[in-house]
Amino acid sequence: xxxxxxxxxxxxxxxxxxxxxxxxxxxxxxxxxxxxxxxxxxxxxxxxxxxxxxxxxxxxxxxxxxxxxxxxxxxxxxxxxxxxxxxxxxxxxxxxxxxxxxxxxxxxxxxxxxxxxxxxxxxxxxxxxxxxxxxxxxxxxxxxxxxxxxxxxxxxxxxxxxxxxxxxxxxxxxxxxxxxxxxxxxxxxxxxxxxxxxxxxxxxxxxxxxxxxxxxxxxxxxxxxxxxxxxxxxxxxxxxxxxxxxxxxxxxxxxxxxxxxxxxxxxxxxxxxxxxxxxxxxxxxxx
Length: 287
What we know:
Layout: E1 3-11, E2 20-25, H1 33-43, E3 48-52, E4 59-64, E5 69-70, H2 74-88, E6 93-98, E7 101-108, E8 111-115, E9 124-126, H3 131-138, E10 150-153, E11 157-162, H4 166-171, E12 191-197, E13 205-213, E14 219-222, H5 226-238, E15 245-251, E16 259-266, E17 270-286
């Protein structure tokens, strides 16, 4: 029986019980794929990560949700970077090897920022979900939508739905009985990222929510979604918005896990996503 140490961290957190929770296993050597998946299901967080040696980066990180392994996800990358820094005694810059590519991550104290790997151009494509169908699915009126739903992919593909006002983001109530109409990405996931610019913030403050269909039925809301935040950066690029931009995204209030994400979009398709990481617990399991 082998014993494996783990840490629990909250990412995009402004307080101890805010942010998106993450479990990070410090050293997954000797652990097989089935065990990693079983542990992700056991902890039942949105993601669990497993740190391994890498010949190309400071560490290799594998990311699992309770149902499958993922190529990339934002908050697991940021939280894992903090653990890697601590384990290796490194400075404030680490590079992680993910299935989706090499990701450089840097810190200012406990605020971590990742730089997205280069992504295919264009990163945005037509979505078969009409504006009318999206409004029905979200429990909103058609006039609440600012634009058409679109697929965006900078590492994980999501449907992005721009709304006309932050109030509409807060009022959204996805209808589970319409899930059959919800398009799935190439990985078979049905997701939607809603966002709107807060009034009076000169475009710098964004309200966002992220929903995904649960296997077997039902809808889950994620507190803080770094990969979708990165896709918002690509949306700004693909829709011709003025660059550079620095945005502050608020997410998670509806599920009592407030998150604060930082998004920087520079010319040249350079996207950076960041947030604070707070470690709250350590432990170990024997398998």
